[in-house]
Fold this sequence. Notes:
Number of strands: 6
Amino acid sequence: xxxxxxxHREDRVIDSRESKExxxxxxxxxxxxxxxxxxxxxxxxxIPYMVVKKDGRRERFDRQKVLNGLMHAxxxxxxxxxxxxxxxxxxxxxxIESAERERKTSEIGxxxxxxxRRYDKVAYVRFASVYLDFKDVQEFMAELKDLLKMKxxxxxxxxxxxxx
Length: 164
């Protein structure tokens, strides 16, 4: 901690106390050079991770919302919840790894669709139909044809890197 009086970088903590709410720690410090005392406060970093919607709006990343969408797409399908949790964890890690603390929903959606495609083609089509917002049957059929052309890609071992 830098001393506010002499700018020396070394000090010692004399006393630490938690606030009544438990969300802040107050530390009384003494500079090792000028011996003056000062107080610092520690707080949890509460800047949320954000997603940028198609229309430019920003909202908090909500892993439960992603999981609910996946569960809806996989309803009555043989996809284990552990696979869905894995997809949600990868999507959350993708958002957290962003230097700007935000990602476009299109990037997150592509990541989710690529993972879901490996586990269940029907669930993939269900998710894609909502996510890609098909305007007509031709767009839907084009996506189905692309899906049929694709070779079955084996599930990767370990953690895979997401596209940026």
